## 1
Amino acid sequence: MKKIFTLLSFVALGISANAQTAAFNGSDFETWSDFTNSITSFGIKSYATQGLTKGYNGTSSLNITGTPTANDYVFTVKPTAASYPSSIGSITFWVKGTSGKSLSFNVYMANGTNYNVFNLKDFTTSATVTPTAVQATGSNAGNGSNDYIGVINTGGAWQKVTLDMSTITSVNVADNTKNFFALKVGKDVSYSLDIDDVQIVSSNMGTIDVKEFDKKVKMNTLVSDNLTLIELPSKSTVNIYSVDGKLVSSNRVNSGESINVSKLQKGNYIVTVEDGKNKVSRKIVKK
């Protein structure tokens, strides 16, 4: 029988858990036609394509590779998901790669025209982004200006972006003929990014006891060819580091999936598991 270790959260009192749904049809980029059918008539830029095997754990991503010549709308989508929560707490997604400028996002209000702006700025590790100003009102085009100040370098790992929607009371989730969400890039610099799993997180939060969380995150810590995440409460980023702190593997993993570690040298490694709100770690031994 494999040796099993249960990862304990560093949070002492409890752990927040949120209901998550797809932000739009095709938001995991697995079925490309689902995604492209969600795009408005503005279309998608030619340097944005389906990244086959470039998503978490060998799945598909939205791959942005190129040097835009303008501050482009890479894509704008309509609200095409099967359902949306009554109250949106955040919009989340995962990013991996590098770029000479940053990203900017528009989340459209109920009229599908006005929008709130989120500018990512410098991005190296998972981060929460707030809107650039107070919520757009009246005939204003938006609540702030898109800017692309900063650079992106995730160090070869998947990092989570959380757009904080807690102050936004108007979002177009009802009219699937109008705008819902847009991604923008800056001009005249190189982008080499993969984006995956754009999700809506309900603001109706529940809390689970740390002991329950403890039971739901399990992995084998004595490994030969595969590190198996026997049980996870949700899809998570699993990073493996050498004892000197070098990242040697980064994957987005579902419960029950395995990571091939057969090429790692024998010895000790540190594994971190991150769901965007919680991060836990444990030593494993490669035989």
## 2
Amino acid sequence: MIKQTFIVSLIGILMLAFNPKEAQAQSYAFGFKLGPTLGIQQWNGSNSRQPLIRYHATAFIESAPVENTYGLFAQLGYHEVGSSVRTNSFVNPQTGTVFPSRNYPLGFRNVHASVGAKKKTLFRDRGYLYYGFGLRGEFNINMYSTGYLQGYEGFQNRLTYGVLVNTGIELPFGEFVSGIVELSIGPDFSKQINIGPIDTGFNNSNGNPIIINSTEVTNVFVELSVGMRFLHKITYID
């Protein structure tokens, strides 16, 4: 119930943010940003997995008041989040077989949408430092994994939600074009996976079946972005 309420509220705010009539009534800015994504996951409340490094791309629109000290924003994008499991190499003492170390990724390809507000302060009389906070919803397109982690495929929740916290710098190249560098952190409040025990269909080196215990997986991501911001300026003439 909480998830549905959160997603419906987010969609409603997005519709208001992208209302064409409102956009035509005042100046606004739009643009894009992209860069690397560091995926971190909590498994049953533990951070025992290795990070997953992937990428993201996001388009955004925001209000642009004359004083340029604050703004409301909405954004839509794509990223890959998740984690990985690294196994150590070992030698089977009975057969002498060497099993090399391996890295098993568990990734989620998600479309995300967020709305929020940001505060700006002047930086060296030219650029702006800013920080922001927003609400975020995500839709999972698909997931991918290797090895025994394939046993999780098909058990992911399609809809998740959380918050977005960001900070960055905006450097104008002129009156209408700026470059941006931004750091964002996005913890989820809902679980990407929440399931009971699963028989993976794989056996360990002793021939025993690998059974996955009840699992709760929550995503957190850290993203470093570079991008461009374009100002659409509205001037009223009496």
## 3
Amino acid sequence: MKTIQLALAIFAAVVLFAVIIFWPAGRLDWVAGWLYVGIVAMNYLGNAIYLKRVNPELLEARMRMSKGTKRWDIVWGVFFGPILISIYIIAGLDVIRFGWSTMSTLFWPIGLILFLPGTVLFSWSMGVNPFFEKTVRIQSERGHRVIDTGPYAFIRHPGYLGFFGWCLSAPLLLGSWWAFVPKLTDVLRVVGNAAAHGAAQEIAVPMTWAIDDFFRAVVEYVYVSIVITIFPLCRPSAK
């Protein structure tokens, strides 16, 4: 993908994202909204620069839906896509237009603590996994195999775990308690997709193992991202 095309794609995505956030709010003087758009824009840009350097073929692959995509994944996306968008719509309606709930600004840095390691883990996963397309399919024409390097050496589904951090951070960064309602539904989608993805790849482990591994990784993620960061006294002693 040419640099100009990539830049235009990122710009269009950020503009669309801003519209989804600010249109329901009905006004543009929403500081948390602009901060969130800025964070997401920097994430898009950083991720694109990183992948352009280490895994440029994946950028091309993620811009399209390839042949062989699992039918259940298409249905999954059609059903949960609007739920993901509704998170930002509800946040704008809640915080700015109607004021349904009030969240302390002290939760904003907690949201950032969840977001940053999540997006780093997500990008790292894409950097080492040439098969990290946006839909689930067996890429037999490219010699599809299980990746066991980078974060995959420790976590079975690091990409989903990274997106889990994004999922939980959005309501905190936007200051909306009500946004957690569709967001928790989206978290369930991430868990279900992780388990189904492992099964679709014909990995010789039960689906329940994939779910167990995911939740074990979630516990580790929360511990590292929140407990160690906020409470230095809880750091494991070095031996």
## 4
Amino acid sequence: MWKFRRLTVKHFTRWALLAVALLVVGVYPAPALRAQDAYAAALRVQYRGVEVRRAQTDTWLPLPQNAQTTFGAGDQVRTNATGRAWITFEDSVVALVLPHTVYELTAFAVSGQQIERLHARLAGRLIQRTAGTIADYRLETARAIVERPAALFIVQTQGDDILYLISARGESRVETQGQVITIAARQGLRAVGTLDERRSMTEPLRLSDLSVPANACQGLVRASPEPSVEVRTGPAEDYRSVGSFPNGTTIPLLGISEGGSRYLTPFRSGFGWVLITGIQRDCETLPTVPLDAVFPLGGVVNMQADEQPLLTPFFGLPAEDKWFYTHD
């Protein structure tokens, strides 16, 4: 026997969102943009560079900035170097999908106002804010599975064997290599290869700091007679300067340039290069970093006010990080 569910104002709101999205992106056929699940999340494009692929389809469809649509089980969203998108689940879970990311919703169920199940897959970087509890939560990555979300956390993957997760508020629980690790507030998990390392952190809770190995070579800034050493986006003078380290600062050294003139080090929410003549190091050898090496910078272009509460715990204020926060 068929069972019919009484429609509520919230259900009509979801379909209204879908209708608006179809008008916004009306150049695409309606079936391609139709949500696969009436009990879907709401997807909103925060900044251009976002595509959606509906369940059981093969085509990625670009969405314009500020477009809104529903997002159901089997749907995927992906972002390019600038794209950002909001996904809102029942007003209790909000996810900000950052650049260079693919996010797939694999299962979603609600009972009344409560989310019962939220399963997803992630490759890239995402910030999530959660109110209340979810009985069945699962965020899969190639390296590990988040089994319990913190009230506010960020997760980033790189390839199949690297995962970084930081809990800003509340506890996250992660299953990795057959064990379950709890990540408390202001702690991070660095899962690289076969190593799982949990660390305490201070705000801003930067992914770039978490990515540094515990045994990294350390350098002491001694740029005298200059008061500081400049940090550049590449290993030469013609690259943009993004800040400096004052004399007396201890910094981790991750590698040396091919020409042997600069060290690679974390800086703010990314990585930069400093002259070796301004650094005294405590190790004998460092790996050579090729000029075309790719680093997971993925900054934010034209940050909006509604993003700031999620971004600043992990990336600091815009005035403090001109590398991560940019304007077009």
